[in-house]
Each structure stands twice: as structure tokens, then as C-alpha cells.
Specification:
Length: 156
């Protein structure tokens, strides 16, 4: 709890199938940095703005959906759904049900890859998408969530 008695703001960071293998997974495409290193840096960036980072990394669609459902105090979410981006109507629906901004991240530029990666089923329910900027995309997504939160939290 914060000094005001309300829970401290947190941003959820979800990573789907095969992203736990970053660092050794197809490094020419996804880089050599581990997911833990990327998320540690992201957590520091969030903490400098007084916001916590809640991580959920899973190969299982339902666990990502559960994480969105069980985060009532999150101000937004960053999500790299991995291959689920191209297939999961259920995760897309979970973005919509979450009701706060979800920024979807893809390390690679999916539009420059195989045609089956061009359709992002989940992204239609995201507030925005960052694709092709590697790990930097997570930082941009965090900044976007924080900016949107500031705008929404500030009366016009
Ligand atoms: C990915 C792109 C997806 O097409 C792929 O299935 C992944 C990673 C990316 O970060 O570039 O697992 O989401």
C-alpha cells in the first residue's frame, strides 16, 4: 500500500510462448539478450517513475489471460504474445476485458517476415503495437502506458 492507502500502480508485462528462451532462441532474429535482462532494465525504468512491474512469462495462453484478469490495480499492460498473436482470439478478448491500455510488442518486424505473421489477431484490441525495434520496443511500450495513464489520470 502507498501512503494514501491505495495500492501502488503497476504495469503488467506479459511474455508468451518461447520468449523465455530469448538469448539462445534464433539470436539473429531476436537478439542475444535474455528476457530476464530486458525485464530487469524495464523494471528499473518503471521504478524511476514510481511504478512497479509485474511479470508473467508463460508458454500457456490461459496463464497470460489469468494474469490480465487478476491485475485489478494495473494501470496498463505490455504484452509480447509470441506466436499467440497470430492465433489467439481468447487473448484478444482478454485485452478488451482488461479495459486499460495494452501495448503489444514484437521484437522482430513481423511485417517483414513470413506472410502468416502479418496478421496480428490480438493487436486489434491493443492500444498500440511496437514491432521490429528489438528490446527497445519494451521501453517504448512502457513509456506509452505511462503517458496514457498520465493523460487519463489528469482531469481535462
Ligand atoms: C514475436 C514474433 C512472433 O511472430 C513469433 O511467433 C514470436 C516472437 C517477436 O517478438 O518478434 O514468438 O512475437
Amino acid at each position: 500500500m502507498s501512503a494514501t492507502g491505495s495500492p501502488p500502480p503497476v504495469v503488467l508485462c506479459l511474455n508468451g510462448p518461447n520468449l523465455g528462451q530469448l538469448g539462445r532462441r534464433e539470436p539473429a532474429l531476436y537478439g542475444t539478450e535474455t528476457l530476464a535482462a530486458i525485464l530487469d532494465r524495464l523494471e528499473q525504468r518503471a521504478s524511476a517513475r514510481g511504478v512497479g512491474l509485474v511479470r508473467c512469462t508463460s508458454n500457456h495462453e490461459g496463464e497470460l489471460i489469468d494474469a490480465l484478469e487478476r491485475a485489478p490495480s494495473a494501470i496498463g499492460a505490455i504484452c509480447n504474445p509470441g506466436g499467440l498473436s497470430h492465433t489467439s482470439l481468447a487473448l484478444r478478448d482478454a485485452y478488451s476485458a482488461f479495459g486499460r491500455p495494452v501495448v503489444e510488442v514484437h521484437l522482430s518486424n513481423v511485417h517483414a517476415r513470413e506472410p502468416f505473421r502479418h496478421r496480428l489477431l490480438t493487436a486489434g484490441a491493443a492500444r498500440g503495437v511496437v514491432s521490429g525495434l528489438g528490446a527497445y520496443g519494451y521501453e517504448l511500450a512502457l513509456d506509452a502506458v505511462l503517458t496514457l495513464w498520465g493523460k487519463e489520470a489528469t482531469p481535462a
